[in-house]
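re: that chain from earlier
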Amino acid sequence: MAKSASETPLMQQHKAIKAKYPDAVLLFRVGDFYETFGEDAIITSQVLGITLTKRNNGAASSSELAGFPHHALDTYLHKLVKAGYRVAICDQLEDPKQAKGIVKRGVTELLTPGTTTNDKLLDNENNNFLASVHFQDNNLGLAFLDVSTGEFFITEGNKDYADKLLQSLRPAEVIFERHKQKLFKEWFGHRFYTYHLEEWIFADAYAQELLLKQFQTHSLKGFGVENLQAGIIAAGAILHYLKDTEHPNLGHITGIHRLTETDYLWMDRFTIRNLELLGSQSDGGHSLIKVMDNTVSAMGARLMRRWMVLPLKDKQRIEERLDTVETLLLATDLRKQLQHLIKQCGDLERLVAKLPLKKINPREVLHLAKSLQHAAELKKLCAGSNSNYFKRLSDTINPCTFIADKIISSLTDQPPVAVTKGMVIKDGIDKELDELRRIAHHGKEYLLEIQQRESEATGIPSLKISFNNVFGYYLEVTNAHKNKVPAEWTRKQTLANAERYITPELKEYEEKITGAEEKIQVIEAALFEQLLTEMQEYVGPVQTNSQVMAIVDCLCSFAENALQYKYIKPTLHEGDALTAKDVRHPVIERQLPAGEPYIANDILLDKESQQIIILTGPNMSGKSALLRQTGLIVLMAHMGSFVPASEAQIPITDKIFTRVGASDNLSGGESTFMVEMNETASIINNLSDKSLILLDEIGRGTSTYDGISIAWSIAEFLHQSPHQPKTLFATHYHELNELEEKFSRIKNYHITNKEVGNKVVFLRKLAPGGSVHSFGIHVARMAGMPPALINRANEILKQLEELRSQADVKQQLKQLPVEKMQLSIFDVHSQTFEEIRTMLEGMDINRLTPVEALLKLQEIKSKLK
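^ sequence. v structure.
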C-alpha cells in the first residue's frame, strides 16, 4: 500500500504495525499515553467509556482517536479482553531522549482470552485454558494449556469425548484450522470464544519440532503421548499460537500430561449440567462445587473442579484418597496445620508461572521464598502422618532450601511491588550499593565528616563546605586563614572576605552523589535480575510442590465436609449392587431452613432383582431430588470423597447418564422434546454394564400416548439390554407401573404423601409400589389457581378416567356432555359470551400448559368486566 504524502511518520509507523495485527485492537504507546486510531478508537471508546475525538493528520481527512494514560493499562486492558477483543500492546522500544528520528515501536504482547496472564482477567478458582482442536476424520486431537499455571493436557477421542472435555474444562478460547470453522460450530455450538489458524500449522512434523524444543527432549516417550498424533498436532498449534501472540517466555511449561478417557468416570455434558455440578439451572440455586469446595487455596479450588468433572475409575486410587480423608478426619490438629500452611502459601502455582514470564515483582519473590519454607514444614507433617499416600506425596516435595535462603537473605523484609521504587536488596549484599546508599541517604553526615577531618588537618577552625550550581561542592576559607590552605587544593573563586577551593575527594564525592539514585536503581535491578535467573531452574520443583499442596488441600476439604455435614466413608467394590441407606442430597440439605431435617431415603439397584426402579409420585414430591442424589453419591465416592448417607456400598461405575429436567434449545432450532430425545439417544447408544442411568419424565415433551410409548419402550430396552445398566426412571405416566408385572428386574416405587382434608402433604419418603394419582390438580391449587377452575378440572379428570379405555383423548373430550362445559352466565350479555364461546371452541385443551390456561382464564375474566 502506498504511503500517503500527507501522513506523519508516526501515523505511517502505526499503519505498518497495525497491518501485522489487523484483527486486534492496537494500543499504541505515544509518550505517557496509549492511543488508538480509527476503528480501534471507536471500539475502545465504546467498551471503556472514554472520549472519542478527531485527530487531523495534516490531510483533509481526519482519524478517530481515543487514549488513556499508560499507568491505567491494567484498569482498561481487562475490560477490552473481557468484551471479546484481541488486544496488541505496542510499546516504545527505546528511550525517546536517545532516539534519532521517530522512536522505535513494536508489539510486546498480544492478549486474547486464552493467553492472558493478567491477574484482573483471571478467576482464581478456575483454570484459564487455551484449547486446541485438530480434526482428523472421526478422531479429534485436543490440547488444553493454562498459560497462567503451565498445566498442559493432551488427549484424543471422538466427537462426544471432545464435547465432554470442552464443556467440562470450559476453555477461555479455542483454536482450530480455518476451514473447520463451520464444522466446529455445528458440533460444539457457539458457546466458545474461537480463533482459527492457517492449515499448515496443523502438521505433524512441525508440532513435534515445537514440542521437543519446548521441553528440550529428544522424544515425547517420557510423557507417554508419543502415539497421540492428532493430540500432538493440537498441542503444537497451541505453542505456535503463543509464539504468534508475542509470548516468548514459556519456561514454566515444563511437561505435558495425557488425559486418558478410560481413566475417568464418563459423564457427558448433559449429565454435568443436569446434576448441577458446576452451576445451577435455576436462579439463585447452588451447585455441587459450591457445596463441596471448602479448599483454602486457589490452586486447591481449581483442582477440586477437575476432580469433579474427571472422577477416578481406578479402585486403588479412589481408596487411597478415601483412606487419607479418614486419616485427616481423625487427626484434627494435623488437618488444621496443613490447611494453615497451604493458606499462607496463597496461589503458588500461578505465582511461580510469573517467573519465566518475567512478570514477578520483588514482593512476590519474597512470598515465593516464604512459601518454600512452608513447603518444608508441610513435607515434615506429611512424612510423619499415618497416611501412606501422604508419605509418598512428602517424597515429591522439594523445599528448594538453597534458593529460598538466598532470596530471604538478599531481599529486604518488606520489598516494594516494583524494583524502580528502591530498597529491594538488603544492605551487606553489594559493597558499591551500600556505598551509594550511604552517599544518597547520609550525604550531610559524610560532608560534615570531610569538613571536620580537613579542619583538623589544616588548622582552619572556620572551614565550611557548601554547594553552588556553577562548580558544585567547595571548601570556603576566610582570608585570615588562607595561608594555611594545602597546595593540592584548587582555587575556584575569590570573594571579598574569603576564597573557595575544591579537592579531588570533594569532586569524586560530587560525581557519586549526583548519579547515586540512578546507579542505585541500576544495581538493584541487576541484582534482582540475577536472582530471577538463578530461580529459573527451580520452576519445575516449585510447580510440583504446588500440585502436592492442591491435592492435600482438596483432601482436607473432603475431611472438613465429612465432619461438618456428617458424611460417611463409602465402600467401593467391583460387583454390581448399589446399596445405600439414608441417602441425602448434598446441595438441597444445605439450603433447608434451620432446624428442618432432610428426609433421607434408602436405595438398592442390582442386576439380579432390582435393575430398574420405576419411580412415580406427585409432582413436586422430590422424585428429581432422589434421582440426582443417587447420581451425586456415586460421583462423590469416585472423587474420593465421603458421601451424605449412613451407609454406602458403591460399585465401580464407568458412566453416569442423566436425563433430568426440561430445557429448550430454541436458538439451535430444537424443541424441548428434540433436546430430550437427543440426550436419551446419547444414553442408549453409549451405555455399558457398569453404567448408572437416571431418567426423569421421559416423553413429556410430546403428546400423552406418544410419551407413554417412548418411555415404555426405553424401559423395556434397558431391561432387555445385555448390559443391564442400573436405572432409576422417574415418571408421571402411571401406565408404566404395568412394567413390573411383565419384567422380573423392574420394580415400582413411589414417593409417599398423605391427604389432609382437601390438601396433599408430601412426605418425601420412598416406598414400594406405584402411585395411583399424579396430584397435578392439588399442585395447581397450591399454585393459586381459582377454585372454579380447580373444581372444573376435577370434573373433567373424573370423566376422562371413566372413558380411559377409548384411544383418542380428543374423542374423549368430544364425548363430554356439552351442558357441563357451559356456564349459566352465558345467557346474559350474549355478544360477549359468544366471543368467549368461539374462543373456547377454537382451543386445543390437550395442548394447553398450565400457564397458558391461566392466561386464557385471565383473558376471559377481562372480557366479563
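The mean pLDDT is 86.
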